[in-house]
Write a structure and sequence with these properties.
- This protein is mainly alpha-helical.
- It has a domain of 116 residues: Glutathione S-transferase Yfyf (Class Pi), Chain A, domain 2.
- The protein has 14 helices and 4 strands.
- Strands 2-1-3-4 form a 4-stranded mixed β-sheet, with helices on one face.
- The chain is globular and about 75 Å long.
- Bound molecules: glutathione and 2-acetamido-2-deoxy-beta-D-glucopyranose (NAG) (4 copies).
- The site of one 2-acetamido-2-deoxy-beta-D-glucopyranose has 6 residues, from loops.
- Glutathione binds next to helix 4 and helix 6.
- InterPro entries: Glutathione-S-Trfase_C-like (IPR010987), Glutathione-S-Trfase_C_sf (IPR036282), Glutathione_S-Trfase (IPR040079), Glutathione_S-Trfase_N (IPR004045), GST_C (IPR004046), GST_Phi_C (IPR034347), Thioredoxin-like_sf (IPR036249).
- Keywords: Cytoplasm, Detoxification, Signal, Transferase.
- It catalyses: RX + glutathione = an S-substituted glutathione + a halide anion + H(+).
């Protein structure tokens, strides 16, 4: 009788501890758990403990990833978002775009196209932010945020379609507007309003189609956040700080989607320039 009361109280204490501090029972310090894991693991209650364990292990494992990039660069941020969603460690290597570092021989030896980001994973070197993102999301598919959901060929087809829609329909007008309305003013140049006026209707046409899609779907490829949504973040983040934000805000379903994807903790960290410079820096 006494021992069963003891057992029940013990179980209660454990339950309270787990519900308040989901990681403490594993001897994991809450501050070591990537915020992205917190965000993701809270939604998957059955496997929550396993989920924290994966995330924590992943964050502490040295994967040896090196990322050549610049923390203000939209394409660098695309890859950073994936690294933070997955809670992966990496060494940042700053390629200063302001001083034209990306066109100097030292960097051209790494990427002859003279563009960032570049990911180095031991003997593998990858250019192109979307290819790097897909690589990381596939290698680390079983940890933290599920960015690809290739449970069937149909799902794979739909996700790939939305990823290419981003590249071929959304990005061309969006990146022109980002350049004119966000980047140019940032470096003290005036936007070319002729270009802006010509480009806006092209983006509006794309967003009208997104609005219809997002009326019936929480995210572009499915009801879950995927790499297809993530790919849009860098341009959207910059454009939401310009008058072009109205194009997104005027469309209720697009607006809801923008709010959901820009609020992700991993994305906030990807935009945090101090988080980039705060890491230990190794040279080339
Ligand atoms: N499609 C490439 C584009 C890369 C790209 O244009 N990167 C920009 C920074 S956001 C860059 O390196 N610009 C330097 C230059 O054009 O000289 C990707 O997604 O990685
Ligand atoms: C996840 O759950 C923990 C514990 O219940 C809570 O402290 C934390 O704020 C939650 N995080 C998110 C992003 O919802
Ligand atoms: C761009 O459009 C705005 C609003 O329609 C107009 O006031 C402005 O003169 C246009 N600028 C150029 C350079 O075409
Ligand atoms: C989206 O939902 C609306 C209202 O529920 C419906 O009328 C419309 O046919 C749906 N569109 C698609 C593409 O499924
Ligand atoms: C969305 O994610 C949850 C949790 O990971 C999963 O259970 C569910 O099957 C996913 N839904 C879709 C439509 O992929």
């Amino acid at each position: 009788m006494g021992s069963s009361i003891l057992l029940v109280s013990f179980a209660l204490v454990v339950m309270i501890l787990i519900s308040y501090e989901p990681y403490s029972w594993m001897g994991v310090n809450a501050s070591d758990v990537p915020t992205s894991c917190d965000h993701y693991c809270n939604q998957t209650f059955e496997s929550r403990h396993q989920c924290y364990k994966w995330c924590e292990e992943s964050a502490h494992k040295d994967h040896g990833y090196k990322l050549y990039g610049y923390p203000y660069s939209a394409n660098t941020r695309r890859v950073l978002a994936v690294l933070y969603e997955k809670g992966l460690s990496f060494d940042p290597i700053t390629v200063d775009l302001r001083s034209g570092e990306q066109k100097k021989p030292r960097f051209l030896a790494i990427n002859p196209f003279g563009l960032i980001p570049v990911l180095v994973d031991r003997d593998l070197k990858l250019f192109e932010s979307r290819a790097i993102s897909q690589y990381l999301a596939t290698v680390h598919r079983s940890t933290c945020t599920q960015l690809l959901n290739h449970k069937s060929y149909k799902k794979m087809g739909t996700e790939t379609m939305w990823m290419y829609i981003e590249s071929f329909e959304f990005d061309p007008p969006a990146s022109i507007l980002t350049q004119e309305l966000a980047i140019k003013p940032l470096v003290g140049q005036k936007p070319d309003y002729k270009v802006v006026n010509e480009t806006k209707p092209l983006l509006e046409k794309v967003l009208d189609i997104y609005e219809e899609r997002l009326k019936n779907s929480s995210f572009l490829a499915s009801n879950n956040f995927t790499l297809a949504d993530l790919f849009h973040l860098p341009n959207i983040q910059y454009l939401m700080g310009t008058p072009a934000k109205r194009l997104f805000e005027n469309r209720p379903s697009v607006h809801r989607w923008v709010a959901a994807i820009t609020a992700r903790p991993a994305w906030k960290k990807a935009c945090d320039v101090k988080a980039w410079y705060g890491k230990k820096m190794n040279g080339y």
